[in-house]
Amino acid sequence: MFRLRDDTTYMMPAHFGGDPYTTTYKAQQKATMLAVTFETDRAALEAYIPEELELLAPKVKVALHQLTEINWLAGAHYNLVAVTTPVRFTETKAHIDAAYPLVIWENRTAPILTGREQTGVPKIFADIEDLHVFFPHYATSLSYEGNTFLRMTFEAGDPVTGKDLEQAKRDLRSLDLIGWRYIPKVGSPGADLSQFIHFPQWMEVEKACYGTGTIQWTELSVMQNPRQHHIIKALAALPVKNVAHSVLAEGDVFLDAPHARILA
Fold first, then answer.
1. Alpha helices in 95-251 (DSSP H)
2. What is the DSSP pairing of strand 123-125 with strand 96-106?
3. Residue 144 belongs to what H/E stretch?
4. Could you tell me the CA-to-CA distances from 140 to 4, 20, 65, 101, 131 in Å, in that order?
5. Closest by CA position to 61, among listed 38, 79, 40, 44
6. Nearest-CA neighbor of 52 among 92, 102, 84, 94?
7. CA atoms within 13 A on the CB side of 88
8. Element containing residue 62 per DSSP (H, E)
9. Which of 35, 84, 109, 161 can pair with 63 through a Cys bridge, CB separation 3.0 to 4.6 Å?
10. pLDDT-derived band of residue 91, with 50, 70 and 90 as boundaries?
């Protein structure tokens, strides 16, 4: 009969086996990142921040990551769009500052499952266009079953060089997340598991440029997107007071899931 091993990490269905647990392996991929950060109303944003966290600034970053040469997917590729905000976990002696993902859309099943099960990252599916590039113009869109709900555009400025590039590398390096792994009870309301997880990750930027970015939400009906329409509506309702900055960067992204840890 099948028996779980103490030295192995499993994903469902576990009975087909897992992988030996190691703390040295890191997920690595090439990345093109297009990020637009805007300031919004603090009270409106705090409605979606768990009480265990402190909102550090009323800012929201919407970031496309176009990922290729992914080592843990044998060189495959996928796209994601992350909507995050800066928070602090205050219920430990050493406070943890990181980005709290309000939602992350991805267009491939494998990273959705691993992120949700292992580190509590709220990943859901969408069709995500590769960047359309007609320099200096960049654009992408997200849709669900043919219904577009988010468009991003970017007009690039001059490439960042010298000391400014070194500063950009430092500013863009950290991609750490605080995920909320929430598993509902079976047959009754409430949670069987509710825990916050610090997930270290970073980007080693090779080149970058700042420019003018825009985001445009289109609310969908229940018929158009039955399981996500309320998420899109909530994000679309956040007021954009001003766009703080927009950036396009290229480099390598590293995900250090073996060193993720539960915050308590």
1. 109-119, 162-173, 229-237
2. parallel
3. strand 137-144
4. 43, 38, 11, 20, 5
5. 38
6. 92
7. 11
8. strand 59-70
9. 35
10. confident
87's tokens = 């928070």
Q: Residue holding tokens 């691993």?
A: 114
Taken in order of first residue, the domains within the chain and their CATH numbers are: 28-263 (2.40.400.10)
* Amino acid of residue 110: A
Question: Quick check: 216 and 151 in contact, CB under 8 A?
Answer: yes
First CA to last CA across the chain, in angstroms?
36
Type of residue numbered 173: R
Q: Are strands 76-89 and 96-106 parallel, antiparallel or unpaired?
A: antiparallel
Burial class (CB in 10 A: 0-12, 13-18, 19+), 146: exposed
Residue whose C-alpha is closest to residue 241's, from 34, 42, 35: 42
Query: DSSP alpha helices (H): ranges in the chain?
Result: 42-46, 109-119, 162-173, 229-237
Q: What is the DSSP letter of 190?
A: S
pLDDT in tens, 237-262: 999 999 999 999 999 999 999 999 99
Does the model's pTM come out above 0.90?
A: yes
Rounded to 5°, the CA angle 120-126-128 comes to 115
Amino acid identity at 127:
D
C-alpha of 162 from chain center: 29
pLDDT, average across residues 138-158: 98
